[in-house]
Amino acid sequence: MTAPVFILGGYQTDFARNWTKEGKHIAAMIREAVQGALAVTGVEPREVEVGHVGNFAAELYAMQGHLGAFLVDVDPGFAGLPTGRHEAACASGSIALLAATAELEAGRYDLALVVGVEQMKTVSPAQGGDYLGTAAWYELEAKGVEFPFPKLFGRLGDEYDKRYGLRDEHLAHIAAVNYDNARRNPRAQTRSWYMSEDHARGGGPYNATIGGRIKISDCSQVTDGAVALLLASPAYAERWAARRGTSLGALARVEGWGHRTAPLTFDAKIAESAGAPYVLPHTRRAIEDAFRRAGLASVWGLSGIETHDCFTTSEYMAIDHFGLTAPGESWKAIEDGVIDFDGKLPINPSGGLIGAGHPVGATGVRQLLDASLQVTGAAGGYQVPGARRFATLNIGGSGTTSCVFVVGRG
Amino acid sequence: MALDIRKVVVLGANGAMGAGSAMVFAAAGIPTTLLARTRDKARLGQARVEKLAKSEAISRFLSVGTYDDDLDREVAAADLVFEAVSEELALKRAMFARIDAVRRPGALVATVSSGLSIAGLCAERSDDFRRHFLGIHFFNPPSVITGCELVPHAGTDPAITAELAAQLRGRFGRALVRTADTPAFCGNRVGFELLNRCAHLALEHGPAELDLLIGPHTGRAMAPLATIDFVGWDVHRAIVDNLHANTADEAHASFALPVYMDLLIDAGHLGDKSGELGGFYRRIGQGKEAQRFVLEPRSRDYLPAAKLAVPPVVAAMKRLHRVGRYREAMAVFADEPSPAAALMRQVILGYVSYGLGRVGEVVEQVADVDRIMGQGFNWAPPGLLVDLIGARRTIALLEQAKLPVSRLLVDAAERGAHLHTEPGDPGRYFVA
Known about the structure:
The complex is a heterodimer. Chain A is built from 16 helices and eleven strands.
């Protein structure tokens, strides 16, 4: 049994911002998120012992690598801080979290800073779509393809359709719920955008098809965003809790994790799972691993989930893979209202990637921040009443890297 | 009391504010009727709503009609009648007389007026009308800008004001500020004080030079004189004329419209909307071939736009904003000794002083003026600027500039407290 890891708190930048329009360098995003996290937690910079940055492709989007070093620039108290940057496409943030939690569990450090960041509005949507193609096997699946990822996740829907049947109206409900939830979240990108289930079901000029069965309303957005989170060992957390007039029992804690990698190409994934109940078996295993480590008997021990809905089809997949329904029956949880904000097991009360936004390398960190806010009753307008335990699922590529965390309290 | 808004009628629904407001109500799933002079104009409003919502599906909540054929029946069935016709007192009053004759008792009536007296607009109406009448001032476009002023007059039922405020915040997602029924309310009063002061300063310093100095690095999306071109010189004149005629505070002189603007408006120069006549800026031709000119206010000639050297104080602030060092950028703002920096301070500190000075008169708290300048104008709010500069330093600079120092500012300095308490990333206002 390794030492538990506590989540002290963190800060998410407003995902509606366009940092390129503001004329900002990615350093400003890191700086605002870190300063926000320090202010929220009252942690002094010199107390932080290690820093990890999750980021997918700043070299492409912002012509900037070596992001870990930007932490040192934030405050003189960070002088000499050990830092690094982690990449696994859209799961980059979770990989940074896994590195930080492993170090804390091992007793190497007592207080870690994790930042997820992506600046994506630096380029045209088409150029950005091409960059995102490097999260697939670029030469085989993305080179010369316009918007490769909507097409790949359209194929995920097609695979469900082939194996079990899939109705697009169920995907439309997923979109509508995420947009609806985002309206409760003051940092969500789409909080003031118009969306309705009618609109998501329809097509037309305002909801055009992007690739395969994926329409605009099925997609997460191009988002700029940064999130910083402070994670601590029991020793530091206990001192910190005393300082803040609270107790360890009131803090969010990482209870379990799962981390698996599937073959990179979508064809290989589907070939591998042919005839199996789960379309993405490695994602299912990552969830099972996290549940086992958390001592969670079933998904019904959760109060909610923050999942990776880069497209409505990925959330459709998450519903049965988490075990809300039998494989292929995600539609039942949708029809029964289980995933709605006031449902039995709400998914993405924050609005998820579709509603809150998807700054690729920041998403995993944003999910863990939201999970920690939920279990400590600090999620404000999108608080799930009485939430005790949340899970996150963060995916890189077309279901390639799957990272899961279970977050409880105390 | 429960305020059950199940049907909205929008008058003047073909205009930008009418269609934008209709979008807010329809987006909340409320059946909304768009009325205009003709059916074609009302349909134009519907197309505008769809464009703002980026959705044809929103039309499920929309219907259209005309003042002549449909107003009586539609208004009689409405829970909220929302007036967004042209900003002309006589026209609005005539519309309210018609509404008063057919509305059901208890139905709300609101005006989107950006500054006319709410009490004056309903002075001749029935008691029930007056009790249910108030201003709901959205900012254009309401689909994007959530800042909103709610303006009851002395005779508005307080319970209705309270309930409507709750719904505007919750159901309609507005960053709401309740203001007194004073000229131009809060946002436009504070905002156009700065804008018109810049129009005066353009005489001496030149429009392009001034916009460069008071540009986005001072905490705004668009430079001041470009903003006046965008808003329209006629709209600008209506707002500052109203303020000049009906306020008598320290900014009275700065609300007088510059004579050169008056003359140019009469000659058809209304800013961006007047095509090649232009305003402070004039563009002839399209795209890369376009020739750009800048107004020379003294002669009222347009001179070819020249590439201006960026003043060192501006360059230094931008460099710091770019990497998120906003506090250090504001330290440069406060300390740089050049005449350019002194002029920048005069304008921005005037805004801080005037904004804080309206607390207690137009709004109740610093948070209110901060909210409307931030969410309505997308300008760095006065309270935030004080926090970044430091309260003591701000007081010293205000005294140096002979500007009124708010008691609130002195209190904040004494207590070491922050003035800006609004949520959201402060960095978003500062453009590099």
